[in-house]
Design goal:
The complex is a heterodimer of chains A (111) and B (116).
Chain A (H helix, E strand, L loop, with lengths): L3 E4 L2 E5 L4 E7 L6 E7 L5 E8 L4 E4 L2 E6 L4 E6 L8 E8 L5 E3 L3 E6 L1
Parallel strand pairs in A: 2-11
Antiparallel strand pairs in A: 1-3, 3-8, 4-5, 4-9, 6-7, 7-8, 9-10, 9-11
Chain B lengths: L4 E3 L2 E4 L5 E6 L6 E8 L3 E9 L14 E5 L5 E5 L8 E8 L10 E2 L3 E5 L1
Classes of the chains: A mainly beta (111), B mainly beta (116).
């Protein structure tokens, strides 16, 4: 059974810091991995999608890496801003079409 | 273009009542998914529709839950005889291409269901 774990569960950093969010999964037979952002009371916003054949994806200050063989992904946020404060969710796409989610990392960036 | 929309955004219902939640996927998307987000459980898969294929209902928690997708577009999730443990945010997502390996799922804003 696929399980997705995110560490840490919560993170508080001062503005301007670079930070790394971690995601691990138990079954390497995935199609892709997505990182999402969720603001309180809102839906999910897709940040980055990495296909299983890819190693990383970049969008602005965000960089996501994928090491499928070791079952790990990281989301790197450069020069964090207060507007980055949100919950970040990692999800792997199972071969059945289902997304399996981690519990999320709640990030607070202090001005 | 328009994203995934869901209605209502909030629903408060009494225990034992039936509720219907609606999802309008992005136009042209062939796949539609329902997920549930509840405190302590995180985000969990409920059901998946792909084109004209039989839906994958493996995530539905009980037979009180059902969903249909009419005309390959709009979907309705129905919960019968609601219980307090059904209180959660119900999220709908859709994706464009049939092949699971390349499809990015786009999420709606969710319906917050509260069962009193």
């Amino acid at each position: 059974k696929q399980e997705v774990t995110q560490i840490p569960a919560a993170l508080s950093v001062p503005e301007g810091e670079n930070l790394v969010l971690n995601c691990s999964f138990t079954d390497s037979a995935i199609y892709n991995l997505q990182w999402f952002r969720q603001d309180p009371g809102k839906g999910l916003t897709s940040l980055l999608l990495i296909q299983s054949s890819q190693r990383e994806q970049t969008s602005g200050r965000l960089n996501a890496s994928l090491d499928k063989s070791s079952g790990r992904s990281t989301l790197y946020i450069a020069a964090s801003q207060p507007g980055d404060s949100a919950t970040y969710l990692c999800a792997v796409l199972h071969n059945t079409g289902k997304l399996i989610f981690g519990q999320g990392t709640t990030l607070q960036v202090k001005p | 273009g328009a994203g995934v929309s869901q209605s209502p955004s909030n629903k408060v219902t009494e225990k034992g009542k039936d509720v219907e939640l609606r999802c309008d996927p992005i136009s042209g998307h062939t796949a539609l998914y329902w997920y549930r987000q509840s405190l302590g459980q995180g985000l969990e898969f409920l059901i998946y529709f792909q084109g004209n294929s039989a839906p994958d209902k493996s995530g539905l928690p009980s037979d009180r839950f059902s969903a249909e997708r009419t005309g390959g577009s709009v979907s309705t999730l129905t919960i019968q005889r609601t219980q307090q443990e059904d209180s959660a945010v119900y999220l709908c997502a859709s994706s464009l291409v049939p092949e699971a390996g390349t499809s990015e799922q786009y999420f709606g804003p969710g319906t917050r269901l509260t069962v009193t």
